Amino acid sequence: MEHSQLFKTLALHALLHLQFQIQLKPRVVTGTLAKNDVLIRWFKPKLKLNKYKSIRKQIKLFVNLSKHSNSNLERFLEGLVLGEDGKPGYPHLDGYLLLMNEIEKKLGTTVVLSTPEALDLDFNKNGNLVAVLSQDLNAHFNDANQLQTPVPMLFRGNLTHRHTFLGSIYANSQFDYDVEYEDDSFIRILLSAKAES
Fold first, then answer.
1. 162-176: pLDDT as tens digits
2. Do residues 123 and 141 touch, judged by C-beta distance below 8 A?
3. Are 143 and 123 in contact (CB under 8 A)?
4. Is pTM beyond 0.85 here?
């Protein structure tokens, strides 16, 4: 089974599990946080199963998504299951958070949010710098959590890590980038939503 289809099937099973838990414990499983907790507790054991070895990375990213945001994981999974074939059905904001999480893990750094004027270019001087250049990240997304204005980002690091950074975005099915500036140390990009074909 193709990786994306396997994850969609797993997502469907998770949603069914959630609905059963809501029916069994209607007073306990209320609100987004309780539902997220049920889903994460269901997903975590799947990391150890050989059946899901090929999608372990996606499962880890999904589990970590709940730690770094106030995402509605139920809505995320519903969008994934119900989305058009070959296109993710989840909102850009959720996809953005997953992408940033992936970049942080691959580069062993933290993505910082800063205005261009306030950015400390010496942050993590001996490592990589990945910065989102914005005063308010939420201003780039509309009420439906879809990207409405491109997100400026700055990267500092060696050439290998630069390729890892750009490769993560290039391989992503939701986002694209345009290079605004590049020299030996830095690259500044505009992260945008991929045009629908």
1. 999 999 999 888 899
2. no
3. no
4. no
